[in-house]
Design a protein that fits this description.
The protein is an alpha/beta fold. It contains 14 helices and 11 strands. The strands form 3 sheets. The chain has a 6-stranded mixed beta sheet, with helices on both faces. A 3-stranded antiparallel beta sheet has the order 8-5-9, with helices on both faces. Strand 6, helix 6 and strand 7 form a beta-alpha-beta unit. The longest helix is centred in the N-terminal third of the chain and has 20 residues. The radius of gyration is 22 Å and the shape is globular.
Amino acid sequence: MRRLVLAMTAMACGWCGVARAQVPEVRIARQFSMGYLQFNVMEHEKLIQKHAARLGIPEVKVTAFRFNGPTAMNDGLLSDTVDIVGGSPHGMFTLWSRARGTPQEVRAIGALVTLPMLITSNDPEIRTIADMTKCKKLPVPSVRVSGPAVAVQLAAVKQFGMKEYNKFDAATVTMSPADATIAMLTGSGDVNCTVALPPYQQQQLADPKIHVVANSFDLMGGPTTYTVAYTSKRFHDRDPKLYQAVYDALTEATEIVNKDIRKASQYWIEDSDSKLSVDFVAGAGSGKDVTWTMVPQETLRQATFMAEIGTIKVKPQSWKDYFFSEAWGLPGS
């Protein structure tokens, strides 16, 4: 009888282990700037779990990671160590082009925010794009493939023509937006130019020594999507209900950000260990050129540019080529 009880207990524990193993997990990766407020909201308010339960998935494990630049996150998607990534559309284009047609294919879930990046300088002799030849070091989250890196290339094209798109590339170095801002404010490490991202751009421009050289909206032909959420086809297809829960959570999180930017900003401050005030961060997230929306804006133009200069090997024909079908009803571009 004792052996029978032990055997039955072992079987029950085994079944418990199987049940635990079947609990789905969503692993989210984001970068350092505040272009991912929806992710902060989803995590704090457990929106993925909420919408998963509504769709019949009673339990979901959600884990968050933070990276600097798209390269490490893209590697994580390819290796199946992260599921959902927040980053510039440019980083997503790179992986979409590279993995297109394979089990690791990547597409966007939805846009996150439209806002401008600002090329700034603390050098009084660097006032225009033509002066950027004097930039000693120009930090970007990831050279060539990040949104800031592409903004630098577009600045070169605007001033010197398409053939000179890489004129400033030699000055670009990989650095987090926070570290780049510290370098600009302290004048350290030969950093005299950067591509400033919220809320760090507001922090930089509060210093009278730092000024704007160029605005990405001017370089990119108008308001453009700054960040997107994207994932692998593997994750999208593996559990359609779980993917729908993520999409619905992202939709609700976007509504919350628009309704209560202060609450979303407080979440970002907590997750980023930031010393900035809620007023300052909320002000950066609610500027006149900032729009929190899942609708992609002028992303095709950016992908076409990257294809023309050879950064990506495939030229998309429509923005729907690199977005999953759940977003196709949006008025994107």
